[in-house]
């Protein structure tokens, strides 16, 4: 699977890149701003993306997410505050809250990879808040 990483904290981006590659996937590129992400969406055609909400150019990750969804590219938000994600999750499959563990990220990547390949028999790991689960929780509160 080709994975794009949209993250403005270089150390986190590099750690995530390493984790993605160790899981047998290809990182198509790292983007630190919405402009870099838009360029990569068009040029690298990823199969999946991890997207931070707050990038170098402000809280533009949600806009990047909407563009990914419009292009038919599944993605997951990675954020220090998932409460900032819109109720519709901007088309994301879900979210992983920072700080995350590498094991949690690895489990989330394995689950998402299976979903993208059409295998929805597994259970989501605790590290991944699925969009429909989050929305159900928001409606009940």
From TrEMBL:
Residues 2-113 form the Response regulatory domain. One of its GO terms (biological process) is phosphorelay signal transduction system. Keywords: Phosphoprotein. It comes from the Bacteria. The lineage of its organism: Bacteria, Pseudomonadati, Pseudomonadota, Alphaproteobacteria, Hyphomicrobiales. Pfam families: Response_reg. It comes from Aliirhizobium cellulosilyticum. NCBIfam families: PRK13435.1-2. Coiled coil: none annotated. The modification 4-aspartylphosphate is found at residue 52. This is Response regulator of citrate/malate metabolism.
């Amino acid at each position: 699977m080709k994975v794009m990483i949209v993250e403005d904290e270089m150390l986190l981006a590099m750690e995530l890149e390493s984790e993605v590659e160790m899981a047998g996937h290809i990182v198509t590129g790292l983007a630190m701003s919405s402009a870099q992400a838009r360029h990569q969406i068009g040029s690298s055609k990823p199969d999946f993306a991890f997207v931070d909400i707050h990038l170098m150019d402000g809280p533009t990750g949600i806009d990047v997410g909407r563009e990914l969804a419009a292009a038919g590219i599944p993605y997951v938000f990675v954020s220090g505050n998932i409460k900032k994600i819109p109720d519709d999750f901007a088309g994301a499959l879900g979210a992983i809250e920072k700080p995350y563990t590498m094991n949690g990220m690895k489990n989330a990547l394995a689950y998402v990879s299976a979903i993208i390949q059409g295998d929805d028999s597994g259970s989501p790991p605790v590290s991944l808040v699925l969009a429909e689960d989050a929305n159900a929780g928001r409606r009940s509160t």
